[in-house]
Design a protein that fits this description.
By secondary structure, the protein is α+β, with helices and mostly antiparallel strands. 28% of the residues lie in helices and 19% in strands. The protein contains ten helices and 15 strands. The N and C termini lie far apart (137 Å).
């Protein structure tokens, strides 16, 4: 029976609204009153022992899935004759079917990103042990969150392959236009079944038209209309990849979802670098969203939007490379920098010392040099006699040691009397007198001096 709004399920989940209904039960939005978060609750009304076993097995398997494009299953329980229930993450936003109804068709870049995200989720499911087939990929089961994340939802027809056997959560079912021929009959389904359904989903997103049914094509009652005949602006490589995924014979399709993903990304130069990245798109600006930067759409390869709402920007990876954080200096770099500072300081000291030595050497000739270059006018500068130094060597030999005594006697008495002729005429008469007369100091007692 259908649960009413406000009903408390399993003493924990408060029903908020019905999200969808089907032959096997309904899907509800509820609030987990223990955790205070929104959840999706899916019921299964087939309560026979066999269906109960299958449903429980599916719940255990799905609860262990951890992939960015799949919702998490958080709870499973059975309520007497009422039914069984799966509780999973509630994903807010719109599904691809609603998006297509609003925009008619989507641009190439956005379709590629949706296809790549779904291929990644399918590849994860197919690689599990045991392998899981979704078997119900269609626009209504592709959910786009307000943050632009893409999810594959609704595992109502999921098939778990354990060796040569398979279990399903409900009756065999299919969706005309999206299911491959083998899903209608008794033929064995495998990962290529999901590849076909994803190809048909992308076909509808590119053209705005549901493709011809797979069973009708297998019976030669219909032919697939080429993508570019319905949407001429779709790139040839993208159209070829989608059509290959929808081949009637499973051997002619991409053999894995990963192959399909790589072909999709290679169809556009903008998406080739995203092979190992997560794929997200921005939702429609018509929805109430959290703060999200909008990127202007570059619709050079995709179809033109049919109305103002169809120009949905694609949230791809940033084009600019992230800036490198500043690296701290290593001890070796610090030592080099300190060594450089010391060398520069030493060079400056040598330069200053050289200047002082040169100044002392050329001091007697400085006035004449300055007058020649016009700094000080030449006056009557008397020559400054520099007395010669008198050296006295005293050698004292005592025993084994010979001591040499050097005695200098020099008297320097410069007298500068320049007269400046500028107006006013000051008279500068510095008369420094310096007398330096060192006295000889006898070493070793003064005995045996030689003059």
């Amino acid at each position: 029976m259908t649960l009413e709004r406000g009903a408390l399920l399993h003493n924990r989940y408060r029903i908020v609204e019905i999200l969808g209904q089907g032959g096997m039960g309904s899907v509800y939005r509820a609030v987990d009153e223990n955790l205070g978060v929104d959840v999706a609750v899916k019921e299964n009304l087939f309560t026979t022992d066999e269906y109960a076993r299958q449903f429980r097995l599916e719940a255990v398997i799905l609860a262990n899935l951890r992939q960015s494009n799949l919702p998490r299953v958080t709870d499973h329980f059975v309520i007497g004759d009422q039914g069984q229930y799966l509780v999973m993450d509630y994903i807010e936003g719109e599904d691809l079917r609603q998006r297509m109804e609003r925009t008619n068709f989507l641009p190439d870049d956005e379709v590629i990103l949706i296809g790549a995200a779904m291929s990644k989720a399918l590849s994860y499911l197919h690689s599990r042990n045991p392998s899981i087939l979704h078997r119900d990929v269609k626009p209504g089961n592709v959910k786009i969150s307000p943050d632009g994340e893409i999810f594959l939802v609704d595992f109502g027809l999921a098939k778990v392959v354990q060796g040569t056997q398979a279990t399903t959560t409900g009756a065999r079912a299919m969706t005309p236009g999206y299911s491959p021929p083998e899903q209608y009959g008794t033929a064995r389904t495998d990962p290529r079944t999901d590849v076909y359904s994803l190809g048909a989903t992308l076909y509808a997103a590119l053209t705005g038209v549901i493709p011809e049914d797979g069973l009708a094509r297998a019976m030669e009652n219909a032919e697939l209309t080429p993508v570019r005949k319905r949407a001429p602006k779709v790139s040839r490589r993208l159209a070829a990849a989608v059509e290959k995924a929808m081949e009637v014979d499973a051997d002619d399709r991409f053999q894995t979802a990963d192959e399909f993903r790589k072909a999709l990304l290679a169809a556009n130069s903008k998406t080739q670098r995203l092979i190992e990245d997560d794929f997200t798109i921005t939702p429609s600006p018509s929805q109430p969203l959290p703060s999200i930067e909008e990127v202007p759409e570059d619709n050079t390869t995709g179809n033109p939007p049919s109305n103002p709402l169809s120009g949905v920007p694609i949230k791809s990876q940033p084009i600019s490379e992230p800036k490198e954080p500043p690296t701290s200096e290593t001890p070796r770099q610090k030592r080099r920098k300190s060594r450089g500072k010391f060398i520069r300081f030493l060079l400056w000291m040598i330069l200053i010392a050289s200047g002082l030595v040169g100044l002392a050497f050329y001091a007697p000739e400085l006035p004449e040099m300055l007058s020649r270059i016009g700094i000080i006018p030449m006056a009557n500068f008397p020559s400054v006699p520099i007395p010669a130094a008198t050296q006295t060597l005293s050698v004292t030999q005592t025993g084994e040691a010979v001591v040499i005594i050097e005695t200098e006697s020099a008297t320097l008495t410069p007298t500068l009397e320049p007269t400046l002729t500028n107006t006013p005429e000051p008279t500068l008469t510095p008369t420094p007198t310096e007398t330096f007369t060192p006295s000889p100091t006898p070493i070793g007692g003064g005995a045996g001096q030689i003059a």
